Amino acid sequence: MTARFFSSEPLNLKRMSPGVKNLVLANVAVFVLSSIVGGEFVRLFGLVPRQVLQERWVWQPVTYMFVHGGFLHLFFNVFMLWMFGMAIEAQWGTREFLKYYFICGLSVALVKVAVWPQSGIPLIGASGALFGLLVAFAMLYPDSVVYLYFFLPVKASHMAILCGLIEFFSMLGQGGGRVDHFAHLTGLGVGYLYIRWWWAFKLRVKSAFSDLASGPVAKSRRPPRQRAEPAPKPAAASMEDVDRILDKILAKGLDSLTEEEREIMRRYSDRMKH
Predict the structure, then answer these.
(1) 255 part of a folded domain
(2) For position 26, which CATH number holds?
(3) What is the pLDDT of residues 117-154, one digit of tens each?
């Protein structure tokens, strides 16, 4: 398996993982462009449910994640992206990290459009996707200590629960403020459900391949009474190969796998058991 590392150096672009670095650069570039263009930029590229449905501005569910209302808004979002994203990308790899990030962000947009289809108030910022990263970090590193509001040390798992409660009660008392607490809660919920479902799916796949590797079908493939030179031990499959095969199973089912892909998953399952 390819080793993955991450560094906690303060916003050092040279040491950032590629997924986090590209997202940071994209957010900064869009912020500079929006500062030049002015207020019309937010109307065009923020998420306005009424425009998405009535005028078919279908780019908004993606572009709203890169639009920010000011420097502090951008700074804290980039800070959260760096703080949680580096560790998650190191654990999952760039492709899975980016897929998860955009699933959370797009889900927030779709729920917003479905619940408030006539709203003309633009939603901007990556906060929904970032709250998805928050819950992912808490599930991957539940005992890690995070300094909430920069001075209050809490475990990551406790921080996710606390932030969820804060957002929930803030949403109940929200009276038209600028912060969309509903979007934050949606990002948290989508992230949690996605990870719980994905992990459960991977466990089922591993169990299925363990059964294949140890069952009578696998044994019957061994030629009886055949003496031959031992074959060289195959190289360990990379995590990228495993991720690719899991994606293929999701899209087309177990029957779509080739013998080579089945063998990769058997080796991976055996390695995980030991």
Answers:
(1) no
(2) 1.20.1540.10
(3) 998 889 999 999 999 999 999 998 988 888 776 677 88
